[in-house]
Amino acid sequence: MNSVLTASYTKENSSFGSLKTKLDNVISTQIDSYLLSATYYQLTGRKGTYIYQDESSFLIVSNHPHLENCLMIFPEVISNSDFSLTAKVLLDNYNSKHQILLCRYTNEEYIKLCTSLSNLKENSIELERVDEEIMDWKYPVRILSTEVVSKLEGGKFRKIRNKLLRAGIGIDIVPIEQCSQMNLMRAALKFWEGNMILNQKDTEDMSEFYYELFKLMENGMELINGLCFIKEGRPVGFTAWDITAGTANLYVNLADTTITGASDFQLVSTCKYLYEHNIQLLNMGGSELYNLDQFKEKYRPVITHPISTYTIKG
User: Fold this and answer.
1) Which domain holds residue 194?
2) Distance of CA 222 to the CA centre of its chain
């Protein structure tokens, strides 16, 4: 681990272990539980992640997974942070060759950062909100009650209940820890890639996220849980999550699109599994597409949490 001291803070290249140690020991009231997950930063920051730290706070910065020469600065998660560390890091880096994006920020966090910037005498930075078109928070973070989704009670869930009656026929569910060397998950991914190619929706880097997930699971299986779904001996999908501060963070709900209702069946099955294991909340994250957001919203989220991206003006 390399550590550099500059401008009253340190910067180090992070590892999964150093991220996990920092986040496991933090006192935070952060609603967005992904920001408390080392898994999230490892997956999103798979092209490089750094930890900046001063005497009272720390923040995490990652290379953007899809844009060259672009840094993603995430909110400081310590409860009493005034974002002065972020202000100092911004001031030291805004003339660099990198584009800088402040990611997953709430309006309250943005205001805190603006206040800290205004307190720096040498500050000349102005921030502005930008439309998020690449990452998955164009639409708000949706957090579900696993109990509500498990039971699907009332008329508002009638259509989902009817869809599940058909979707789950002949599908067996196997917890990830029982999957031999994750072969079922890898095979499901290959079927998904084939469908993407057939439908001309494939991209060069569309599977990078999944490969990084598999690498993490191979190195620390107990940190990531999930379910595999099998029909007539063929893997047709899987879900994967980790747990931070008592909330499950969903990273994958990959389903065979030729099976009507498969995504619904997998999500409800995942919520049932979590509820049976005393996990009350499932953070599904935000969405980059309207249809995906509507899929999440139909399950009546108990928390809707808008987040945004900001950059430096000019």
Assistant:
1) 141-285
2) 18
